[in-house]
Specification:
41% helix; DNA-binding; 9 helices; binds nicotinamide-adenine-dinucleotide; 230 residues; homodimer; Rossmann fold; alpha/beta; two-stranded antiparallel ribbon; Arc Repressor Mutant, subunit A
Chain lengths: 230, 230
DNA sequence: TAATATTCGTGAATGAATTCACGACGTGCC
DNA sequence: GGCACGTCGTGAATTCATTCACGAATATTA
């Protein structure tokens, strides 16, 4: 197991990743493992093998082991992975072992749904500012949060130490909202508008494109295809 | 393991789509092209080259051409693709040149947002039934649609010719809702609950997992990584 | 303690997706 | 028409991701 990681084995710290490029798919699967481990912990399992995890999430054992091996060596041969500890380790890798302050731009349909969504908060993503440009909404109270003018975004970001911004405005306004967030120093943006936003280097953008998902469904229905497992 | 060769047997599907396996990424990019072409058409472009499309959506020209080539040969050498016609062709491939009847299970936060979402309807995805198991909601009118008891799902699916079901119930109830839909003969499901649903062969399931996206963001923030372009 | 059964971790092999590179074909201009 | 140029379509090369397969380490049982 003499891996090429030069780092001496004193790890009790946050793992140093970088070096090797981790694929997007691996990171997404980490989220999957994290949720599975939470469930398994609740079901009383103290250890779990790559085989168990794989079967549960429709993956292969080798994939599970390979993914985890990018970040360290967490298992015990002959036994498997310690459920609770692996969950903790993955939480640290994903950064969900801490609280993130989230700002929401756009207090409309989807924005309201997100504010009411408890799971995000439980995972450590706390919406503590909402921005809009509609004067009728600004100043009103939305689930305990007063809606701010988007013009005050930079100031609020600083004041509340906001690290992530969610964009939930109409597509036509999304690039503008994005620019405001970037200008305020935001490095991570989750976008719900169905367009390709431009962000400078160093800013991570993820776009949640529901149209794409439902069009995938109509494609399979139209072409009588076998589904590709998610 | 995949016994579905499905090749070489002359049984022709309706469209000219090659029987080669089209990758999921290609289909997702088709959605991207479709939206880009709609925009380009609005901007008055009569033709568009793979280079233009690629630059606009941060892809490579070769990728665009390769994707399209799986479905036919739509371009003119030396000139590019005819915007309007290519859009029409992609619409037919994706199946967005027709209307799909969509049933929504779960009239909560996210469900309400979806019902209010005009874009889906414009794209031909029309929600014309809503199901819930909360007696206080059943029978009430939600944006012009009367909420039905989930027990009546099979009957409504038949009556309204529903082809796609959207699941927007709490994770704990999602598998049950899914089973009801499958039992009613539904072949395409869009799931918003953050769990891995089990569906039989022949049913396409897509899961919109927002937790995964936001965890990806916290991963990049935590590890000071370069974003991977979406 | 020894023998057997598991399961991890990881290089190597395989498979899939993307990019390259070039011939074919079309346009536009003189 | 002939030439210069642009762009498609596509097999080949390349890059990237997944799976295989096996040695090493640990657990379990007698
Ligand atoms: N509603 C859905 O279910 C759904 C689903 C998928 C994607 N989306 C996308 O999410 C986005 C929002 O959708 P919605 O249905 O919530 O829309 P909405 O119209 O209900 O809400 C948009 C909000 O953004 C505000 N806004 C507009 N321009 C702004 C600006 N420049 N700065 C700040 N705030 C501004 C509006 O005042 C409004 O409150 C859209 O891009 C939509 O395509 C929505
Ligand atoms: N709210 C969000 O922004 C958001 C974001 C991402 C994912 N989600 C997911 O979407 C799902 C719904 O979230 P929500 O916030 O809308 O929840 P919600 O509690 O507001 O709504 C859920 C609805 O489902 C109904 N329901 C419950 N059990 C049912 C059953 N067995 N059959 C039929 N109907 C049933 C409830 O009566 C309620 O109307 C959850 O799985 C959640 O994790 C929500």
């Amino acid at each position: 197991m003499n891996s090429r990681r030069a780092k001496s084995d004193g790890d009790g710290d946050r793992p140093v990743i970088s070096r090797r490029r981790i694929s997007e798919s691996t990171i997404r699967r980490l989220s999957i493992y994290y949720r599975a481990l939470s469930a398994l912990e609740g079901e009383g399992y103290h250890t779990v093998s790559s085989k168990d995890l794989a079967r549960r999430e429709k993956l292969t054992p080798a994939q599970v082991r390979k993914d985890l091996s990018f970040f360290g060596s967490f298992g015990t041969r002959g036994l498997g992975y310690p459920t609770k500890e692996l969950k903790t380790r993955i939480a640290a890798i994903l950064g969900v072992d801490q609280t993130w302050n989230v700002g929401l731009i756009g207090a409309g349909n989807i924005g309201s749904a997100l504010v009411s969504y408890k799971e995000f908060q439980k995972q450590g993503f706390v919406i503590n500012a909402i921005f809009d440009n509609d004067q009728r909404k600004i100043g009103s109270n939305h689930k305990g949060i007063v809606i701010s003018d988007i013009k005050d975004l930079a100031a609020e970001v600083k004041k509340r130490n906001i690290q992530i911004v969610v964009i939930a405005v109409p597509a036509a306004a999304a690039q503008q909202a994005c620019d405001v967030a970037v200008e305020a120093g935001i490095k991570a943006i989750l976008n719900f508008a169905p367009i390709n936003l431009k962000v400078p280097n160093g800013v991570t953008l993820r776009t949640e494109n529901m149209a794409m998902e439902i069009e995938y469904l109509s494609f399979t229905l139209t072409n009588h295809m076998r589904p590709i497992p998610t």
